[in-house]
Amino acid sequence: MSDHAVSRRAFLRAGGAVLTGTLASTSGVLALIAPSTSWALELEALDAHQAATVLQFTRHVFPHDRLDDAVYALVVKDLDAGAAEDPTTRRMLTDAVRRLDEASGGEWLSRSAAEQFVQVQAMEATPFFAKVHSTAVVSLYDNDMAFAHFGYPGRKGDPGYIHRGFNDLHWLPDPPDGASGPVPETA
Amino acid sequence: MDMYDNRTTFAADDDGVVVVIGSGAGGGTLANELAQKGVDVVLLEAGGLHTTDEFIADEWPSFSQLAWTDTRTTTGDWRVARDFPNLPAWICKAVGGTTVHWAGASLRIEPHEFRARSTYGDLAGATLRDWPLSADDLASYYDTAEKKLNVTRTNGLPGLPANNNFKVMHAGATRLGYETCHTGRMAINSVNKDGRNHCMQRGFCFQGCRYAAKWSTLYTEIPAALQTGRVELRTRVHVARIEHDDNDRVTGVVYFDADGRERRQAARVAAVAGNSIETPRLLLNSESSRFPNGLANGSDQVGRNYMRHTTGTVWGVFDKPVEMYKGTTMAGIVQDEARHDPKRGFVGGYEMETISLGLPFMAAFFNPGGWGRGFTEAMEQYRHMAGMWLVGEDMPQADNRVTLSSEARDAFGLPVANVHYTDHANDVAMREHAYTRGAAIYEAAGATRTYRTPPYPSTHNLGTCRMSERAADGVCNGHGQSHELANLFISDGSQFTTSAAENPTLTIVTLAIRQADYIAERMRARAI
Ligand SMILES: Cc1cc2nc3c(=O)[nH]c(=O)nc-3n(C[C@H](O)[C@H](O)[C@H](O)COP(=O)(O)OP(=O)(O)OC[C@H]3O[C@@H](n4cnc5c(N)ncnc54)[C@H](O)[C@@H]3O)c2cc1C
Ligand code: SF4
């Protein structure tokens, strides 16, 4: 056994694994802010297959075709952390992955997107779906990579847009003075 | 000395003080106004002190820092009960109360709205009443409040400059022929004033204004009150109940301090300003042998007639970018629909005000529970969206009410509030009209698509201890004084007899200023 494997096993919990990926595009905004083009998520509770399945499931719930897996991995990270903390959550996630695979007569992941989606829809009323949804609706849209994708500057707006384009829309007529007000001179 | 240091402290058994519960729009203003008149005040606030340099320009972390997240429960037909069962309202728990999060829209209630029952008639299912006061009674107090808040477009102050979101609203509204459309009457400095900066168009008004350009009791009323040396502010103290004697006089309040220890503060007068959910909860939790249904609740009106405004949001999607998040959150208004015109199929009116949400809140509130392509296609348009919030008068109903939960308890073992709300048919008709007109504005400005977002957890909470001419119809009189205990006052939006179309805070502040005059006068006359 290599040193690497030993230290990895010592570092991770039993059953732990790593979910890895490579940024789909090295030219997009993401490549500019991501520390490297490949990413790795160390898992605490799920195995790599379960994590990959949950990631793909999340892609069906919130499908943004040009949003990188690296962002969806943040959802998996939060779900995995929840599973590590709480055995009920862990069982909910692992059972759901098993059910998806069983219903697909093999690996759900190897099915076509359309076939996968049928299973996702069938699970809409389950606690698993609700868990993925409620986690993703926060994690997926509350990070710098998502901000870059959707064009929201977040904290960069903290100083104020008074000199940075708060009124730079020019494809409609400007309101008359009476409806607007002066930009303060001391600004 | 720091602006938040107490320059004075009062003994627990000092029964000469006015105890004010809650430091938001109502309580913070009342405490300062009383102190300016030489009255001693103990100001009790459940939340902690977070100064402008601590504010976070990030929606979820800011929400965790400032919002009231202690458990509440919900029932009723409203969608909030399904989507956010433990978050019926969006309210702050912090020094300054919800004036830390508010957007600053500051409109006067119209004269006819104070006469809601006379103007609208008898609507089945609605408990409409006229207010026990008129617009004339409040006029000079509104003047004072507008000066205090530096409301734009009053007292010679300029309006705020138009941002992108407002430009879209204005273009569409003008094309539809709407006439009253401008950058609003906002409690946001349009020029440097009172030692506070002018607005820097940050767009994080809902997360606390780092520049203190937007009025909040946090950095206006409260430091001014402490400066007088007549006010002691106690933070992280949760008031559990109010006590009284056999003559129906309040004698003191019992609270849990930051370490969970039970304390008592004697009081000559108690004024409750915990916002319209905690205020009735506190009275209901203060039941006694003389007041078995809750303090000041002989009329059985405490907690009833809960109002939250008829609201909704419309988003317009455009070919070119809007970037609505740049600049003030409520950047402008259309007022033409605020009139009472039953020909539209409902009584009362509504305002249309721009709104923007950052990406995290957009995901959470755009269509709670939504998923799949329909949801993500909308999110992909984020940069190209303009937004407006619709806010109109909702009907008071006896069964829309705050009660004590029979099961859920807070950290101190006190029953939490359950909030029950179901729309009145008038509310449904008004919302539909407002959604349609809002979409028409964006279509006139060139929108390729519009979306409707359902009401958020309530930001405007009103009516649960309403003022009434007759004691049987409400909880307090036109001065917010309890019909049953002369030295107990309601000092927040719970007093509202009806909701009116306008955002409520200017009126809450106005009533607090007027109430301070009344309390000081009654104290001088030794009537309380
Ligand atoms: C996002 C947002 C935007 C808004 N925008 C506008 C706007 O543009 N215009 C407008 O008019 N209004 C607006 N509002 C509403 C406005 O904030 C409220 O109307 C106003 O702050 C209510 O004042 P209040 O005194 O009743 O309560 P609050 O300001 O909520 O203050 C109540 C305080 O009491 C404390 N408290 C409660 N219970 C206890 C207890 N038992 N013991 C001790 N302390 C207690 C709370 O912690 C809180 O600090 C907005 C609100 C939100 C959330
Ligand atoms: S937009 Fe203006 S009022 Fe709002 S947070 Fe920024 S500076 Fe304050």
From TrEMBL, chain A:
Q: InterPro entries this protein is in?
A: TAT_signal
Q: Which domain of life is it from?
A: Bacteria
Entry protein name: Tat (Twin-arginine translocation) pathway signal sequence
UniProtKB/TrEMBL annotation, chain B:
Key words, A-Z: FAD, Flavoprotein, Oxidoreductase
The terms under GO molecular function for this entry are: flavin adenine dinucleotide binding; oxidoreductase activity, acting on CH-OH group of donors
Task: Keyword check for Flavoprotein, yes or no.
Answer: yes
| Record flagged with keyword Flavoprotein | yes
Q: Where is the Glucose-methanol-choline oxidoreductase N-terminal domain?
A: 92-310
- All copies of the Glucose-methanol-choline oxidoreductase C-terminal domain together span 396-512
Which InterPro entries does this UniProt record tie to the protein?
Answer: FAD/NAD-bd_sf (IPR036188), GMC_OxRdtase_N (IPR000172), GMC_OxRtase_C (IPR007867)
PANTHER family referenced in this protein's UniProt entry, alphabetically: LONG-CHAIN-ALCOHOL OXIDASE
- Give the similarity note: Belongs to the GMC oxidoreductase family.
This protein's name: 2-keto-gluconate dehydrogenase
